[in-house]
């Protein structure tokens, strides 16, 4: 670590470190559920560096002990402006529990991977402690936990609807989404002497006010009143109907302010800011990070989340896929904010100077690996758009899907004298590479991208996410037809043959998604078997707030049509669907035979588990006839890790 360990390199975390800077008072104190890693992939580090850049004195209290006498909450005293609170880079409940609500034994954001260093619902716990100790000091909450809970939301772990996290935590201001820009606006107003309680019309923030109070004045904003929390508790369809508005307004350029009643109060969610410009996102990634964990952790072991990303480069933010089960667009937005090539290369240069760098960049990617620089050709069309996805059910005619900007970055990185290999490990949207029928120029560009990817940037396995094989289920997921995966596999295999390499595709699949029935899983098993995949490990999707799939899971209704959707929800239903992933395990054979016989789908049985000497009956595939669907309520679970070409792999 060398000279980066000198006093002042990291933001202070203790009273001694504060005093060594000659400070007698702090302007802002941050509390985080994660260990302190001073790296742009860790939100508390980004926020701390933004505050520092604004000329303010800031310190971080990582993973405070909430169980004892709360000395961690008082050791740095009272900040002049406010406390900042985040549950961490990963939702604390997802971090703590499996989809079966079983306690996990590890925490990737803690030294040594040890569990037990953050509470359930960390933002609420930390905020309540701080309010009890310092009732007159404002609290600002942010990060993924707060962002996804800014309005009434379904809590999978308590199996109930909960009000805005502002109400439960007692915090004074919530910054949602990627928070650098709204935070800068707040800090600049506070530095000018504007009282904290006057920060009521900041974009991309949420506040709570008495139910009978007038809305803060802003002539540019229209307001939309949602069904109240109490009505959502009484009527599941009202909760589902709310989500359509929440999702659409979260992804509009000119959004409306959302207002929701909660008892004697109301939650006010101000419209989001426009996507970050290149200059703004560069400024965030170019802050003076040490790019390392704080030295306080030296004897406690490595931090797994840092080890995974320390030689990786995030090229952009946002995702326009809009998948029904994914929270990326709910937090980062659907519009892509891309870094400049110069900023990316500065980070590559910084990585090559790290003492344990061996010449391999582990990832050149983003939330979806191949969306860098993609945006609308005519911005005015995007300005009017309310669609949550730019590529489902079809690719928008206004979307520029060229991969040339990515290829240019790839070439520059691999030409760096200290870089031996630079991989693309983020999951790719393969449909962007094959849905090019009738466009010869785009088809040629896509084949060029695949060939360069295969030749230079695949580490042996390439992650893609078809998620299912049933077109009906895929429509609910906002994912493309499975035939596009066949198309991509064909192009990928052709490129591997041309470049004389034998790489593997690693596709991910989901079971128990809304709309998915047993025969859909049987079809999935048949199709993946025919393609040479055997599914080894299942990782369940956990319903999290602010997704279409989670709204359906709880309410039983699709939020856009308000029509009932069948969803497996019980433990048995989920387990039965998951069994089809493991058709190759002998202990599941009798159950599969009984189940498919009972469904009158012996055609699937003959293909999945053919009897010796018996010919398989009519092929099924993703378009095989299906039993009539019975509307029911709820359920989502995720399965992953299919291998390629007959091999088996585990872990994700």
What would your notes on this structure say?
With 652 residues, this protein is α/β, with parallel strands linked by helices. Among the domains are: 2-207, Response regulator (Rossmann fold); 502-652, no CATH class. It has 23 helices and 22 strands. The strands form seven sheets. The chain has a nine-stranded mixed sheet with strand order 3-1-4-5-8-9-12-11-10, with helices on both faces. Helix 2 (43-53) packs parallel to helix 7 (180-191). Residues 1-7 and 618-652 have low confidence and may be disordered.
Concise structural overview:
The protein is of the alpha/beta class and 652 residues long.
Q: Work out the helicity level.
A: 25-40%
Please state how the strands of the largest beta sheet are arranged side by side: 3-1-4-5-8-9-12-11-10
CATH-defined topology of the domain at 2-207 = Rossmann fold
Poorly predicted residue ranges = 1-7, 618-652
- Provide the CATH architecture of the domain at 2-207: 3-Layer(aba) Sandwich
Shape: globular
Largest sheet: 9 strands, mixed
CATH class category label of the domain at 2-207:
Alpha Beta
List keywords for this structure.
single chain, 652 residues, alpha/beta, Rossmann fold, nine-stranded mixed beta sheet, three-stranded mixed beta sheet, 23 helices, 22 strands, disordered N terminus, disordered C terminus
């Amino acid at each position: 670590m060398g000279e980066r360990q000198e006093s002042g390199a990291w933001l202070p975390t203790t009273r001694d470190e504060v005093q060594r800077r000659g400070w007698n008072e702090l302007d802002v104190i941050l509390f985080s559920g994660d260990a302190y890693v001073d790296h742009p992939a860790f939100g508390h580090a980004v926020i701390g560096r933004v505050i520092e850049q604004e000329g303010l004195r800031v310190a971080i209290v990582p993973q405070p002990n909430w169980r004892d006498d709360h000395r961690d909450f008082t050791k740095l005293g009272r900040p002049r402006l406010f406390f900042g609170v985040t549950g961490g880079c990963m939702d604390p409940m997802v971090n703590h529990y499996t989809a079966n609500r079983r306690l996990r034994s590890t925490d990737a954001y803690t030294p040594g991977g040890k569990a037990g260093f953050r509470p359930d619902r960390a933002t609420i716990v930390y905020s309540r402690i701080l309010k009890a100790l310092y009732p007159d000091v404002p609290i600002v909450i942010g990060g993924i936990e707060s962002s996804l809970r800014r309005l009434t939301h379904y809590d999978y772990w308590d199996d109930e609807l909960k009000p805005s996290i502002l109400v439960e935590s007692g915090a004074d201001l919530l910054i949602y989404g990627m928070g650098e820009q709204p935070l800068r606006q707040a800090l600049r107003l506070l530095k000018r002497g504007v009282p904290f309680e006057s920060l009521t019309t900041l974009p991309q923030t949420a506040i709570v006010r008495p139910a009978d109070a007038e809305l803060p004045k802003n002539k540019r904003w229209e307001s939309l009143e949602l069904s109240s929390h109490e009505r959502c508790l009484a009527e599941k369809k009202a909760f589902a109907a709310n989500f359509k508005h929440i999702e659409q307004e979260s992804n509009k350029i000119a959004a409306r302010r959302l207002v929701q009643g909660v008892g004697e109060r109301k939650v006010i969610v101000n419209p989001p800011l426009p996507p970050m410009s290149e200059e703004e996102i560069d400024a965030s990634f170019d802050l003076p990070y040490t790019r390392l964990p704080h030295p306080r952790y030296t004897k406690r072991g490595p931090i797994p989340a840092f080890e995974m990303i320390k030689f990786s480069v995030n090229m952009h933010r946002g995702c326009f896929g809009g998948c029904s089960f994914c929270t990326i667009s709910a937090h980062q937005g659907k519009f892509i904010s891309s870094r400049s090539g110069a900023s990316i290369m500065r980070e590559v240069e910084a990585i090559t100077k790290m003492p344990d760098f061996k010449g391999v960049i582990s990832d050149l990617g983003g939330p979806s690996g191949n969306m860098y620089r993609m945006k609308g050709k005519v911005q005015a069309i995007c300005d009017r758009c309310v669609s949550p996805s730019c590529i489902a059910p079809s690719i928008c005619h206004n979307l520029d899907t060229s991969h040339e900007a990515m290829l240019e970055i790839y070439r520059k990185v691999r030409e760096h004298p200290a870089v031996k290999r630079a991989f693309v490990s983020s999951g790719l949207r393969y449909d962007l590479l094959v849905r090019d029928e009738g466009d010869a120029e785009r088809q040629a560009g896509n084949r060029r991208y695949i060939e360069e990817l295969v030749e230079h940037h695949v580490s042996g396995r390439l992650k893609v996410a078809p998620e299912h094989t049933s077109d009906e289920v895929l429509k609910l997921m906002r994912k493309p037809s499975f035939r596009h995966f066949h198309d991509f596999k064909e192009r990928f295999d052709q490129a591997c043959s041309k470049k004389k390499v034998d790489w593997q595709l690693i596709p991910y699949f989901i079971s128990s998604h809304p709309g998915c029935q047993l025969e859909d899983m049987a079809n999935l098993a048949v199709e993946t078997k025919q393609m040479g995949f055997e599914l080894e490990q299942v990782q369940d999707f956990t319903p999290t707030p602010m997704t279409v799939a989670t709204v359906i899971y709880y309410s039983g209704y699709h939020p856009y049509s308000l029509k009932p959707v069948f969803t497996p929800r019980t433990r048995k239903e989920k387990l039965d669907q998951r069994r089809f992933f493991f058709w190759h395990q002998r202990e599941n054979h009798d159950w599969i035979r009984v189940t498919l016989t009972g469904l009158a789908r012996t055609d699937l049985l003959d293909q999945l588990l053919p009897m010796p000497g018996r010919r398989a009956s009519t092929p099924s595939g993703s378009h095989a006839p299906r039993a009539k669907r019975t509307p029911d309520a709820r359920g989502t679970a995720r399965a992953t890790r299919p291998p390629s070409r007959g091999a088996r792999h585990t872990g994700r």
